[in-house]
């Protein structure tokens, strides 16, 4: 049996994905293909390193060692072909906290922050909860592939109150792995307009064959003066609960702003286990990650075939990266409240409703493919049967 095929029960572990379905999705007996964590154990090397750490028995205050920063530097050099200077790194408890820190550090109430919807909904929360306002430059869907709108981007970034842009790269939920030309477009416009650019690259290691992720800071050294890059092993190696992420901030003034905001929030000491997990994952986890990507591609192929055979009215925007699939259900059921009711009450499957990611996502669902294939197959069968297909 493939290592990723083995069913693993997560019920009773206080798993957000499995144990809080009643609170988050309105039912406790649903199959959860929603929140973005995997139903796979982390690499054995990570489990071994964490077990050894736990056996120490003393869980006092800790900080990241030099080995932590060298593992991060080596991973970026080997995996993405660029050097991440350890002096640029600010450790944070997660990418979402990092986004909130950036908004707090570099905007004032009433300032505007640009996003490209449909997009990961905590982007909007991090802006609005900290007194800023969202500007949207919506992605354009053409030939089942999302693209940026250069003219609209330039117009929105020209707003004198626009102080920041948050870029999702690779993009969640639509799965685009942005090409170098698209990244240059964004960065060049931000530089021209005096806008700070925050690049969320948490899905950077999850890229399908034929595509390549380019870290924004690797493209042009001059982007370092206005760019903050957010990264974490949490999506790649299923470590989200260990609260370990990094902001890579080459510019000393911007870095000082983040460090001061981190200090104000009292988030300056990392999770006891997070650094151990990062080191083990980045030093020893790449073979596991390659096997994972092969398995995820198989799940994506299953989804593609199933929709073609059983739900041809549903339109898949095929992801180039991430383990998330973005599916338009409007051809199956135009009335979204009715469709959602069918999914939850008849199919008994919890997908993320697309409207979470902005009004542009109404009628869509986001499907988490990072689960055993048998579970994905059952969820899809339930979905088709619920819609009478």
Write a structural description.
It is a single chain. The protein has 389 residues and is α/β, with parallel strands linked by helices. It has helices at 16-19, 21-25, 44-54, 66-80, 95-106, 122-128, 150-157, 180-193, 216-219, 234-237, 252-265, 274-284, 286-310, 336-347, 373-386; strands spanning 31-33, 89-92, 112-115, 133-136, 140-142, 145-147, 162-168, 196-200, 227-231, 245-248, 315-317, 324-328, 349-353, 364-368. The two termini are 31 Å apart. It has a seven-stranded mixed beta sheet with strand order 2-10-9-8-7-3-4, sandwiched between helices. It has a five-stranded mixed beta sheet with strand order 1-13-14-12-11.
CATH superfamily of the largest domain: Type I PLP-dependent aspartate aminotransferase-like (Major domain)
Tally of alpha and pi helices: 15
How far from one another are the termini? 31 Å
Strand percent estimate: 15-25%
> Reading side by side through the largest sheet, how are the strands ordered?
2-10-9-8-7-3-4
